[in-house]
Model the fold of this input.
Amino acid sequence: MKELIFRTRINIYHTSELPSEYKELEAIVRELPRLAYAPYSHFNVGAAVLLENGNIVTGTNQENIAYPSGLCAERVALFSVGSLHPNIPAKAIAIAAETGGKRVEMITPCGACRQVMLETQNRSGVPLVVLLCGPELVYVAEDARALLPLSFDGWNLPD
Done:
C-alpha cells in the first residue's frame, strides 16, 4: 500500500492586514452578495476577479427554478473574464456570501467552481490567488490548485 498526503497552505488575514493589492478586491466583493439572484436558497454569493491589468470583473450567483440551470458567482465572474478579456490573465478571485442578511464566516467554492478556477489558472499560466472573505477574516490560497488536490487537469487526454 502507498499513501498520498496533501498539504495545503492557507494564509488567514484580518481584513485590516490584508495585502494592499487585494484590499479593493475585498471591498468590492463585500458588497456583491446583495446583488445575487437567490430566491430559492437565500444563499447570496458574490465573486470579484482581479485581472493582471488591474481591472476587476464581478459576478453573483444566479438561481433558476430548474435548479441545474443556475450558476455560481465564481463561474459567472470567471466565464465573463474568459469571454470579455480572453488574453488578460486573472490574478485573483475573491468570494463572499451572506444568508439571512448576515455575512457568512467562511465561504468555500463548490467543486465545479474549483475546477473552473483551475482551468482559468491553467489557461493563463498564472497562479490564481483565491480569497475566501468572511466579515473579519480572509482565507487566502496562493494558487487555485491548493483547493483541488487530485484535480482533473487534462494531463491524460490524447493530443
Q: What stands out?
A: Strands lie at 11-14, 43-51, 56-60, 90-99, 102-103, 129-133, 137-141. The helical segments are 20-31, 73-84, 111-124. The longest helix spans residues 111-124. The chain is about 25% helix and 25% strand.
